[in-house]
């Protein structure tokens, strides 16, 4: 069997399902190939919630993409009829000179984003679950909140199929080959081979394998999400009272969390940001161990003291991290007909719909009006942390 398409998309997780939708909506004949089933829990896009925020400490260049992302999240909710984005407010906590606080403030000032700076006493009064030290402050932004990853992937898949995309699940790609002359690709799976004029590769944690010749080093990391039943119940943690937060400790360790968005019996989710161990998709240890539960409970005990009451469950997930922690989105340097979107470094989900739009621009026009210079596929060097933050 050898069928021909305008664009093939490898990987139908967060970014691939969004790309397939945006491409199909533009009238492209789209083939999508996915190793697992729709909206699965084997990659990087499961666990019920992902933080979304605009005052972006990672780099101010992400802000225009976030503003577009919010528009597209709302459009996706309307078009799919799914509940995807919940605005709760977001609190970025730490000493004033931490990357979390200073970087968020820098982005907010640079782009004129509405925000408030709160002293420790203000934080305790407005958010009584939080117990900052006297020298800790926070940036609060009203537009922050969370999105629902599984529902979002399912929404993009449903709309892509409705727009005519041919999406095939449980069909891993073995190899892809760019045809000479910059035109066309051939893809081989266990079921057969396909050709397409252009290719979009969104492989998540499988990037080291499917994009080994890209010239970018990726580190795949195991990262655990934890759910606790708070002491005294979930009432103070409901989404109408409790923001999402990222909290940076003096040693640079960041912990983050959510309100109780799944109802009173499902607990409250929290996790360390970037405290993972290197793994591969095959070697990922999905068990959650008592020592790591004790470590996060101990870390929270002086910050959100009621949260680590009783441990309910945990789930391992993977980050695919680049040396500078910035995404990799652009044309493959050796094959102009191939667009890559990977290396989301643990902070990509909130951008899912705009990444789909960018990938569709690049695959159909060869260019995009969105600012993507930071994401160029090229070797990366670790950024010396403070240099990115104007103080
Ligand atoms: C614990 C955790 C917490 C996070 N928290 C946040 C957060 O709060 N906010 C935020 O913005 N981001 C967050 N992220 C990051 C975000 O979830 C990821 O950046 C995003 O999900 C990555 O999407 P992806 O499409 O690259 O990967 P995935 O969604 O994993 O998709 C890749 C897909 O490619 C498929 N695939 C791979 N190889 C093949 C092949 N050979 N053939 C066919 N299919 C293939 C895989 O099966 C998979 O479905 C978090 C991630 C984790 C793990």
UniProtKB/TrEMBL annotation:
Region (Disordered): 370-391
Keyword Transmembrane: no
Enzyme Commission (EC) number: 1.5.3.2
Gene Ontology MF term list: N-methyl-L-amino-acid oxidase activity
Transmembrane stretches, start-end: none
One Pfam family this sequence matches: DAO
InterPro entries the UniProt entry points to: 3-OH-isobutyrate_DH-rel_CS, FAD-dep_OxRdtase, FAD/NAD-bd_sf, MTOX
PROSITE patterns: 3_HYDROXYISOBUT_DH (PS00895)
Keyword field contains Flavoprotein: yes
Cofactor dependency: FAD
Domain FAD dependent oxidoreductase: 6-362
Biased composition annotated in UniProt, kind: Basic and acidic residues: 373-391
Coiled-coil zones: none
Broadest EC class assigned to this enzyme: oxidoreductase
Protein known as: N-methyl-L-tryptophan oxidase
Organism of provenance: Streptomonospora wellingtoniae
């Amino acid at each position: 069997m050898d069928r021909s398409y305008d664009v093939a998309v490898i990987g139908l997780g967060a970014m691939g399902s969004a790309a397939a939708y945006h491409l199909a909506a533009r009238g492209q004949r789209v083939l999508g190939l996915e190793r697992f089933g729709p909206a699965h829990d084997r990659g990087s896009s499961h666990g019920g919630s992902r933080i979304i925020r605009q005052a972006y400490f990672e780099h101010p260049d992400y802000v225009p993409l976030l503003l577009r992302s919010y528009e597209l999240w709302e459009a996706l909710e309307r078009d799919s009829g799914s509940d995807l984005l919940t605005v709760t407010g977001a609190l970025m906590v730490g000493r004033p000179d931490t990357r979390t606080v200073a970087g968020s403030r820098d982005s907010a000032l640079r782009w004129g984003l509405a925000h408030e700076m709160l002293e420790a006493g203000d934080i305790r009064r407005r958010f009584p679950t939080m117990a900052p030290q006297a020298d800790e402050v926070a940036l609060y932004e009203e537009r922050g909140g969370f999105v629902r990853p599984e529902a979002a992937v399912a929404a993009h898949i449903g709309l892509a199929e409705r727009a005519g995309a041919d999406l095939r699940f449980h069909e891993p790609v073995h190899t892809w080959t760019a045809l000479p002359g910059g035109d066309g690709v051939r893809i081989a799976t266990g079921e057969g081979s396909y050709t397409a004029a252009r290719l979009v590769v969104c492989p998540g944690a499988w990037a080291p394998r499917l994009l080994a010749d890209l010239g970018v080093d990726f580190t795949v990391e195991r990262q655990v999400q934890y759910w606790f039943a708070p002491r005294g119940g979930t009432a103070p943690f409901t989404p109408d009272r409790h923001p999402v937060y990222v909290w940076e400790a003096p040693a640079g360790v960041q912990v983050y969390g959510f309100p109780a968005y799944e109802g009173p019996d499902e607990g409250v989710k929290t996790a360390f940001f970037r405290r993972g161990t290197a793994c591969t998709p095959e070697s990922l240890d999905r068990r959650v161990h008592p020592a790591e539960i004790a470590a996060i409970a101990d870390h929270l005990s002086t910050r959100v003291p009621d949260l680590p009451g009783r441990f309910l469950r945990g789930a391992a997930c993977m980050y695919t991290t680049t040396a500078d922690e910035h995404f990799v989105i652009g044309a493959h340097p050796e094959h102009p007909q191939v667009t890559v979107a990977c290396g989301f470094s643990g902070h990509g989900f909130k951008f899912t719909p705009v990444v789909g739009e960018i990938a569709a621009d690049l695959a159909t026009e060869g260019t995009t009006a969105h600012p993507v210079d930071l994401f160029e596929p090229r070797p990366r060097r670790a950024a010396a942390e403070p240099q990115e933050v104007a103080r």
